[in-house]
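One such given next:

>
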Amino acid sequence: MDKLQNLYQQTQQIAQGLQDLQNEQQGQQQQQVQQNFDPKGEKRCIVAVRYYGSAINQYKLDDGTVIDKPQAIDMVNAGLLPGLAVGVARDGSEYVRDNARGGDQITNLADLPQF
């Protein structure tokens, strides 16, 4: 019984260590995204969109920067685009969507001007 208890405790310690490492890596990735897009860490706002077919694939920010969908997803995840969230489509692909549950700048992206 003592061996099982020791093994359980070791397993718990390993799991906690892995969780701590994963949290640290996520924090580093988030910090890197912020530095890549905006070294000052300033939040941005999407002011216009560009479609490819029926889907939005590029976004124009309030500072004039044009970003593509993966960059926008990274910025949303890093907290640099308030009022937006990352959604998952039925096919498993990610997309930027309005965050209807909060945020002070909720805008329907489809209603924004095209560029």
About this structure: The chain has one domain: 1-115.
